[in-house]
Structure formats: C-alpha cells, structure tokens
Amino acid sequence: MFKPFEFCLSTKSTSVPAGPDWLHEVKYDGYRLRLERDGDRVRLITRGGYNWTDRYPWIVESALKNRFRQFIIDGEAVVLGVDGVADFNALHSRQHDEEVQLYAFDILSLDGEDLRSLPLSLRKTNLARLLARRPHGIFVAPFGRGEIGPDLFRAACNMGLEGMVSKRVDCPYRAGRSKDWVKAKNRNHPAMESGDGLVLKPRMRFALNAPESRSHKGAARYGSAGPG
Fold this sequence. Notes:
Layout lengths: L7 E6 L8 E5 L4 E8 L2 E6 L10 H9 L4 E9 L6 E2 L1 H6 L7 E10 L2 E2 L5 H11 L7 E3 L3 E2 L3 H10 L4 E6 L7 E10 L6 E2 L5 E2 L3 E2 L11 H6 L6
Parallel strand pairs: 1-12, 7-9
Antiparallel strand pairs: 2-10, 2-11, 3-4, 3-5, 5-7, 6-15, 7-8, 11-12, 13-14
C-alpha cells in the first residue's frame, strides 16, 4: 500500500546561496509530479492531488522496467526536443504526451524504506542507484554544488532559462514550504499570456545535458535544423 507523501516546496529568493552546504539544480519547465511504484502498480500524482498516470505512458513504462519494485520519486514532467530543448508549450498542448519524460530530482522511498529523514546528499545517492543506466523516460537531474551556485544562475539567466533551485545538502525531505529549498527566478525570463489567461512559456535550452526525446516528432516541431 502507498503511504501518504506530500510535496516539499521551495521558498522564493532573489539570490542563489554560495556556501559549501548547498547544491544547485536548473529549474526545468514542466509539471511537478510524484511517481509512485508499488509492485506492478504505478501512479503519477500532481501537486493538486490529481492522478495523471494515463497521460504519460513513457514514464510509466520506464518505471515498470526498473528492477526495483517499490520506489517514490519527486520530479518534473517535461517534453524534450531532439536537441535537448524543454518545450513547455508542447507539454501544455497535450499533443505530445507520449514524449513526456520525468526529470527526477529526489527520492522519498526505496524498497519499502522511507528515505525522507535522510540528508539530501544520501537521497541523491539512492536516486542515482535507482536510475543507473536508465536515462530514457526517467532521468536524474544534474546538479552543481557549493560556491558555483551564483555562476550557474547567471549562466542559466544568460541562456534564457527560468531559474535555479538550491537545496541544503543535509536537509531531510519535509512536506510543505521549506527554507532549505530556495528558488531564484530569472527576472528577465520571457512569458507569453494567452487569451484564456494561461501562461505559455517559450522553448528553452537546458543548461545541463539531458536525454534526447523518444521520437523524431520534436524535429518536426522545430524544423530539421532544430531551434536557433
């Protein structure tokens, strides 16, 4: 049976911490999801508590192929183009659900053991072990550590990315808003507001390497040469 798990949420910040006790992840454009596998059963749960398991078959397929039969992952559902571009508009359109992958940045449970009390550094180790050699459908979020944070943030802003999330390496996973997770957003990040009030974001290039898309449909969306 699944145990109750709630999301840890970041606190907004105007700067990126530079101390040695922090690690830094690029903020990807997508939908926050919790992946829960229990034997032959997989669920994809949103922040609002909705079950989106039927939406993203590639994530479910990848989870069921893993040799571990019980785990819970926290991550972001994203659509990638063939050149590693995150396309939020494609994700929002629901026209490319079969291409959606999970950008996994934390693990809450593995093999029946609740890992939330462990420091983030150890949870990252367990996440890497779970997803070793399995980059397709679910991939581990890359990160930098320590004083490099502000430099990574400036680079992300220069590339037009949404921002960065920094996390204390010794923090447990706590439900709700946490001061151990801080989110710095690019103040010049462009966004387009559609007529129905939904914010649609332009395509953005990942600052760190990510797997390719599942098919060549991305090439059709961006043109044979890809985005400029």
